[in-house]
Amino acid sequence: MHSVRKKRLLVITAIVLILSVAVGLVMYALQQNINLFFSPSQIAMGEAPRNANIRAGGMVVKGSVKRNSDTLAVAFDVTDFQHKVTIEYRGILPDLFREGQGIVAQGKLNNDGVFEATEVLAKHDEKYMPPEITEALKNAQSSTGESAESAQSTY
Amino acid sequence: MFPEIGQFSLILSLFFALSLASVPLIGYWKGNRLLFETARPLTFIMSALVLVSFVTLSLSFLTDDFSVLYVSQNSNSQLPVWYKFSALWGGHEGSLLLWVLILSGWCSAVALKIRTFPEDIGPVVLSVLGMVCVGFLSFLLFTSSPFARLLPDVPADGGDLNPLLQDFGLIVHPPVLYMGYVGFSVAFAFAVAALITGNLNSSWARWARPWTAASWAFLTLGITLGSWWAYYELGWGGWWFWDPVENASFMPWLAGTALLHSLAVTEKRGVFKSWTVLLAIFTFSLSLLGAFLVRSGVLTSVHSFAADPTRGIFILALLLVLVGGSLLLYAIRAAEVRSTVSFGVTGREAWLLLNNILLTVLTLTVLLGTLYPLIFDALGLGKISVGAPYFNSVFTPIALLLMVFMAIGPLSKWHHTKFRVFFKVCSISAFIATFSAGLVVYCYGFGFIAWLSLAVAFWVVFLSFSDWFGKVSAGTKGIIPRARQLPRNYYGMLLAHLGMVVTLVGIVLVSVNSHESMLRLSPGDRATIAGYEFQFDQMEQVKGPNYVASKGQFTVYKAGNAVAVLHPEKRFFSTRQQVMTEAALDAGFTRDLYVSLGERLDDSAWSVRIYVKSFVRWIWLGGLMMMTGGLLAALDKRYRKRAGV
């Protein structure tokens, strides 16, 4: 074969090889590590898978935060003003975690319908609202406008 | 009065930017020298006007002029004076002004050095930079002016700077990061100017190289500072989160690294010419994409500014115009570019090509992971997030592979290298590296990935030193004179590569050898972590300039001796009604002790995070080494010569 062509072939083979390995890796990793977000309403309607890594979030319901007196375990409810879901977590909550604040949790929904969080995220600016929650609230609001409005006023 | 001056000079600077973007180019096409040479004075006037505007906004901040909306949102009369100044870039509008200031600063630097390029290209470069300035200045003026007034209802006091930003990190991280981000627009301008003038021989690579190296060095430092800041400020001791905005700064870094290497090949060998041009365009596009991701609020991130869709659309349009335009130009001109020199598949070109392929693949995997939630949402498949495990599992193997080759490249010669030349040194190094890494892993009981990474680290260190030693020991002059003769460029490379290794070692050890625990502690309690005894001595209330804090005291003992006293704080900022964690840490070369307070649980007990982080400083030490390497390369003597000499 002509040497220039041979070179080109070599280069192209190298690129294709590396790219295919990378694509394989990406596909595999994406399959493992995508976390879908579910709103409390979606969870209540049974749309969320059990025992799979997902995200859930909403506004923390006032007066729902319960702490264990000996350990760092804590449980609280989040709501989109339609439905509630209980989140259990063991660890230190972020600074901006507050009742009435929007949060997102990462973890698994167990068979009792309780969300066991491995991570709780609240954003670093009190004006900032995670987009998932904004949308979940909007969706919940549009399904029954009135009740959501009244719920919001209590917040 | 000041805000109006600022606004006015910003508008004027837009006019000068418009002239800069057009007049020299008209001069170029018409062959009119006079018009062509206006580029330099226009650049200086534009930059001076932006500077005036920046100074007026700083004055508004320093004098607590809360009639300015932006000041009232981001500052407060109680704020310490240095934070008042840095609060200028604590929000979207001001940080964009900082961005524009730095952009015009780079323009002026190019204008100052214009005599080092051939006469016919310098003004074209400035003109292209002028177009970029037009884009950002109009973005600033039309969507996000920081000079808007709150009249006649002037608030008595400001809404305060986000407490998280009231830190030394805010003073240094954004300016340095922007220096890097924006600096790539110079490389972009060179590439586009080369396309416009058709002057695509390898010389443009030579002029673009020091500028690219300098911006790369700044970006490296900016990312390093950001990582260090996040580590001590956010209070959970992480140093990298694969957060979309971190990725936004990391992608131009990866592409810029590829660009740095491919520029070297283009300059020295005259090959990969069109690829290098394309890479320069892409690196800058990724900087713009970063700006889009941060400022449009399309992605969930810790860095998000309060979202405003019109801004997102504006940057997207800017991105399309600048990138689309340059790609179009590229499509028209690229056919004319043919590498006349062939390259050897066994020479250094081939290794650098491999470097470029791997870095591009890395950039694409990060890009995909970052944008995947957007794509997923746009297709109506639901809201997702792509977690750190994705990035870790994809990034690690490719990056390790890259580092394996990173050591071989410098050993090889241009065009053709005989296999046996480096077979011996490579096999010896591979043997020593696997063995010594195995020994470390065996002694400390680490896993496979740690072994692999450490082996790669040792491999790079051995090969780099044997390369250096080979270069200085050949010949008769003696080691020291020869070592001093090697170009700065070479030492820059060596330092950057070793910096990469230092960072790798830090990353590996901090992830396999750290001890973390979250505990419930009351004053008087003790906890033992990794051989260190943490005693919770007491808790007291203290008052800061604009906050009140609960301040804890922890004494750390090792083998009965006190080694450190740590004071973690929980601060309450009354203006914003916001709580902030101030972690306390005892930094060390091989370990950090890290204590941060969670929350008060009952009368006396607190939730407390205690970490013993192994070798975490090495991550940033490596970053500093890489930055120094980049600066050494930028300051190489070869680039100081005037054109044509």
UniProtKB/TrEMBL annotation, chain A:
Subcellular location field: Cell inner membrane; Cell membrane
InterPro entries referenced in this protein's UniProt entry, alphabetically: CcmE, CcmE-like_sf, NA-bd_OB-fold
Residue ranges that the UniProt entry lists as topological domain Cytoplasmic: 1-8
Membrane topology, from the record: Single-pass type II membrane protein
Binding site for heme: 124, 128
Family, similarity comment: Belongs to the CcmE/CycJ family.
Name this polypeptide is given: Cytochrome c-type biogenesis protein CcmE
Organism: Marinomonas polaris DSM 16579
UniProtKB/TrEMBL annotation, chain B:
Subcellular location: Cell inner membrane
Domain of life according to the entry: Bacteria
GO process annotations (BP): cytochrome complex assembly
Cytochrome c-type biogenesis protein CcmF C-terminal domain segment(s): 316-637
Coiled-coil residues: none
One Pfam family, short name: Cytochrom_C_asm
Membrane spanning stretches: 6-29, 41-62, 96-114, 121-142, 178-198, 210-230, 250-266, 275-293, 313-332, 353-375, 387-409, 421-442, 448-469, 490-512, 615-635
A molecular function (GO) term: heme binding
Domain annotation Cytochrome c assembly protein: ranges: 89-296
Membrane topology listed for this record: Multi-pass membrane protein
Cross-referenced InterPro entries: CcmF_C (IPR032523), Cyt_c_assembly (IPR002541), Cyt_c_biogenesis (IPR003567), Cyt_c_biogenesis_CcmF (IPR003568)
Role summary: Required for the biogenesis of c-type cytochromes. Possible subunit of a heme lyase.
Family statement drawn from the similarity comment of this UniProt entry: Belongs to the CcmF/CycK/Ccl1/NrfE/CcsA family.
Protein's recorded name: Cytochrome c-type biogenesis protein CcmF
Classification of source organism: Bacteria, Pseudomonadati, Pseudomonadota, Gammaproteobacteria, Oceanospirillales
